Structure formats: structure tokens, C-alpha cells
Amino acid sequence: MDIQNNSFLSIDQLANQYLNSSRKTVKAAQDNLVSFQEILQNKSQERNVSGTQDLKFSKHAAVRLENRGIELTDAQLERLNDGARKAGQKGIRDSLVIVDDLAFIVNVPNKTVVTAMNSRETEENVFTNINGAVIM
Q1: Diameter of the chain measured on Cα atoms
Q2: What is the rounded distance in angstroms from the CA atom of residue 11 to the CA atom of residue 101?
Q3: Cβ-contact 51, 84 below 8 angstroms
Q4: For the whole prediction, is pTM greater than 0.85?
């Protein structure tokens, strides 16, 4: 049998073919890697561009706002976000945030408004399940 005239590659040829292509693949993959530090910095910059991360309103809070006819202005919403941020800086988990004549219970770690009421609903002035308050 004549091995030199067949279509099989030698071991050296196979090694060069696969090792060189895998080295190129590894090099390309390394060029596309993004470090954790870079991802963290990008996320921090995104958050800083938009100011603070906006609060979400729970389904319950959205229903309360609608049922009670409460409409927030952009300025009030900004102050509510600022109040939640300040509560977070002080380590408050569940905060009462008062903006004008509106009261909001905010779960600070989740950045979620749990419920909302205006001064007519706060006639007893008793708020439960909070561990801090911010008056804006």
C-alpha cells in the first residue's frame, strides 16, 4: 500500500491544523472578554446618567393611586425617588415617604412603592410596618 499517495493527513499536519485553529479561537475569545470591573463600571455610569434608579409601583399601589385619584407630578415623583434614596442611605428598609400631602410606603431594598394615600386617608395618622420616615 502506498501511504504517500492517499488523502490522509499526517499527524504533524493534523496537529498544526487543529492546534493553530484552536489557538486562533482562544485568542479571539480572549479579545472579546469583558472584565467584571468593566461591566460594573458601565452599570454604575448608566445609573449615574439617569440619576437614581426610579421606583416601581406595586400592583396594589397602582390600584390605590387610581382609586384615590392621585396623580403625581414629575417634581413629586422626583422627590419621592429622592426620599427613597435618602431612606436607603440611612439603612431604612420600609419607609414612610411624605411628599406634599401624599404618603407613600416604600420598600427601599426593592425600590418599590407598596401603597399610597393622600391626607384624607391618613386621618388617624398611624402607619405600621415601617422602620423609618422621610418628609420631603
Answers
A1: 102
A2: 82
A3: no
A4: no
Q: Give the bridge partners for 107, in sequence order.
A: 94, 112
Q: Enumerate the β-bridge partners of residue 117.
A: 103
pLDDT in tens, 90-99: 999 999 999 9
Cα–Cα distance measured from residue 90 to residue 97, given in angstroms and rounded to the nearest whole number: 13
- Secondary structure (3-state) at 70: coil
Torsion of the alpha carbons at 76, 78, 82 and 84, rounded to the nearest 10: 70
Distance CA 105, CA 83 (A): 11
Are 114 and 58 contacting, i.e. CB atoms less than 8 angstroms apart?
yes
Q: What is the DSSP letter of 66?
A: H
